[in-house]
């Protein structure tokens, strides 16, 4: 591992010295010490450290506000919040601000190093791991299953959609993912596209009737088959993973906002002659 | 649908919520539903896998969600269902559902829970099962949370 630069934000000289000492003989190198909020923002810009450890109480503000400033300047900043007590409201505020890691005082040396390591590696690798191991296979399976189920040729596209909420108008199938890579998948389409798709899946002729409910059921079943195949494929390749899917849930309506609350998410679109079939995959991170 | 899963939810709510600053937690009526339900405005879906499978939908109005978020933030005013309130409701459903998972483990059911899906809107429906499923109403300091559960 290359040297990882850490900026310590703490108004107490003693705490700073203690944290610094813990990182001796590791690949984490303390690049500087900021004693208050103002200095933290300034020194972040000067050093562009790989990780910031942030004390909650600073003489001229709190750690969350300071983190918010830093994340505004650099949304990829990796911040570890260190607070005196475990406080849920603090964690909620911190998460909402974009802080990904929390530690409680007194800080244990091993836990500190482990947390830094996870924070660094996870953030650096997570996107690549997710894209290579999970998203690219999903794009292929989506395209293949779409063809097998409905005969539709999909022109596939995918993009990363970090921290972006989105709206569903029509019908969406929600499938929870559990295992080391927890998350959720939503497969959605407008009702016109969903009904057309269902007619193809059910192999109906133009004269056959299809109720909205039966169309939604077929859509749900198709989503379930698609994801079932995907999960068994991923579990085959990544042996230690054991992803499981929860049974499908369905949402239906107009302008349903899906909140992407701090998920690493990707949008996959299959452009077809009957319209777009879309999929949004969100991962919460890995529990290694 | 299985009534033996009701108590793990009620226990989870009555254990977790007082720790977050809620004072009066009472159980309302228990009923059954079939097919889709109307979202009250904010609906959080959590999936279960392993030895108990299914979905749970926590359903509440936007106003109730804001008030609940406000209590969790130690009384900070929450006028709009903003990022902070979303984070609070997400955290709440995580904490309650994780506690449910612990309760189920003590009944010898090993379960895993998915990331919560937060959905929000004026007019939409949510379906968690094709069969009959259970609805537990919980009253949290005057705010209604409807727990729709289909687990088996």
In a few lines, what is going on in this structure?
The complex is a heterodimer of chains A (288) and B (152). Chain A has 288 residues and is of the alpha/beta class.
Layout of secondary structure:
The complex is a heterodimer of chains A (288) and B (152).
Chain A: E1 4-9, H1 13-22, E2 28-34, H2 37-47, E3 51-55, E4 57-58, E5 61-62, H3 63-73, E6 79-83, H4 88-97, E7 101-104, H5 109-150, E8 155-160, E9 166-178, E10 181-189, H6 191-201, H7 212-237, E11 244-245, E12 249-259, E13 264-272, E14 275-286
Parallel strand pairs in A: 1-2, 1-3, 3-6, 6-7
Antiparallel strand pairs in A: 4-5, 8-13, 9-10, 9-11, 9-12, 10-14, 13-14
Chain B: H1 6-19, E1 25-34, E2 37-38, E3 42-50, E4 54-60, H2 62-72, H3 83-106, E5 111-113, E6 117-120, E7 124-127, E8 132-140, E9 143-151
Antiparallel strand pairs in B: 1-8, 2-7, 3-4, 3-5, 3-6, 4-9, 8-9
Helix pairs in contact in B: 1-3, 2-3
Question: Can you offer a commentary on this structure?
Answer:
The complex is a heterodimer of chains A (288) and B (152). By secondary structure, chain A is of the alpha/beta class. In chain A, 42% of the residues lie in helices and 32% in strands. Chain A has 7 helices and 14 strands. Chain A has helices spanning 13-22, 37-47, 63-73, 88-97, 109-150, 191-201, 212-237; strands spanning 4-9, 28-34, 51-55, 57-58, 61-62, 79-83, 101-104, 155-160, 166-178, 181-189, 244-245, 249-259, 264-272, 275-286. In chain A, strands 8, 9, 10, 11, 12, 13 and 14 form a 7-stranded antiparallel β-sheet that branches. Chain A has a 5-stranded parallel β-sheet with strand order 2-1-3-6-7, sandwiched between helices. In chain A, strand 9 (166-178) and strand 10 form a beta hairpin. In chain A, helix 2 (37-47) runs parallel beside helix 3 (63-73). The two termini of chain A are 19 Å apart. The mean pLDDT of chain A is 89. Chain B is an alpha+beta fold. Chain B has helices spanning 6-19, 62-72, 83-106, and strands spanning 25-34, 37-38, 42-50, 54-60, 111-113, 117-120, 124-127, 132-140, 143-151. In chain B, a hairpin with a 3-residue loop joins strand 3 and strand 4. In chain B, helix 1 (6-19) packs across helix 3 and helix 2 (62-72) crosses helix 3. Chain B starts with 5 loop residues before the first helix and ends with a strand. The model of chain B has no long low-confidence stretch (mean pLDDT 93). The chains are: A alpha/beta (288), B alpha+beta (152). Chains A and B meet through helix 4, strand 9, strand 10, strand 11 and strand 12 of A and strand 3, strand 4, helix 3, strand 6 and strand 7 of B.
């Amino acid at each position: 591992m290359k040297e990882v630069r850490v900026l310590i934000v703490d108004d107490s000289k003693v705490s700073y010295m203690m944290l610094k000492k813990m990182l001796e003989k590791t690949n984490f190198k303390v690049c500087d010490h900021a004693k208050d909020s103002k200095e933290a923002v300034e020194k972040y810009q000067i050093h562009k450290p790989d990780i910031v450890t942030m004390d909650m109480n600073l003489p001229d503000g709190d750690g969350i506000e300071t983190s918010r400033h830093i994340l505004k300047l650099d949304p990829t900043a990796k911040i570890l919040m260190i607070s005196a007590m475990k406080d849920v409201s603090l964690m909620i505020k911190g998460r909402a601000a974009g802080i990904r890691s929390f530690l409680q005082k007194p800080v244990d040396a091993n836990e500190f190093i482990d947390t830094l390591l996870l924070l660094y590696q996870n953030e650096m690798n997570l996107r690549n791991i997710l894209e290579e191991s999970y998203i690219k296979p999903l794009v292929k399976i989506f395209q293949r299953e779409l063809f097998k189920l409905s005969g539709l040729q999909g022109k596939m596209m995918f993009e990363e959609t970090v921290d972006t909420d989105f709206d569903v108008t029509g019908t969406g199938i929600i499938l929870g993912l559990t295992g080391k890579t927890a998350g959720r998948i939503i497969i959605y389409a407008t009702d016109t596209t969903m009904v057309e798709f269902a007619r193809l899946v059910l192999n109906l002729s133009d004269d056959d009737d299809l109720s909205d409910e039966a169309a939604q059921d077929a859509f749900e079943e198709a989503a379930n088959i698609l994801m079932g195949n995907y999960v068994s494929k991923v579990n085959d390749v990544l042996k230690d993973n054991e992803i499981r899917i929860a049974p499908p849930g369905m949402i239906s309506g107009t302008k349903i906002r899906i909140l992407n609350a701090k998920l690493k998410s990707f949008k996959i679109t299959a452009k077809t002659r009957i319209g777009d079939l879309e999929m949004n995959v969100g991962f919460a991170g890995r529990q290694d | 649908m299985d009534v033996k899963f009701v108590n793990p939810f009620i226990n989870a709510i009555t254990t977790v919520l007082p720790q977050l600053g809620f004072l009066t937690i009472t159980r309302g009526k228990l009923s059954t539903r079939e097919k889709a339900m109307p979202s009250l405005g904010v609906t959080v879906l959590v999936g279960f896998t392993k030895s108990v499978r299914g979905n749970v939908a926590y359903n509440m109005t936007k106003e109730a969600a804001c008030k609940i978020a406000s209590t969790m933030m130690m009384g900070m005013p929450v006028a709009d269902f903003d990022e902070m309130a979303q984070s609070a409701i997400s955290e709440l459903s995580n904490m309650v559902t994780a506690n449910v998972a612990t309760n189920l483990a003590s009944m010898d059911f090993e379960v895993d829970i998915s990331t919560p899906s937060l959905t929000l809107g004026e007019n939409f429906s949510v379906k968690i099962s094709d069969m009959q499923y259970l609805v537990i109403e919980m009253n949290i300091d005057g705010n209604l949370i409807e727990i729709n559960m289909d687990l088996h």
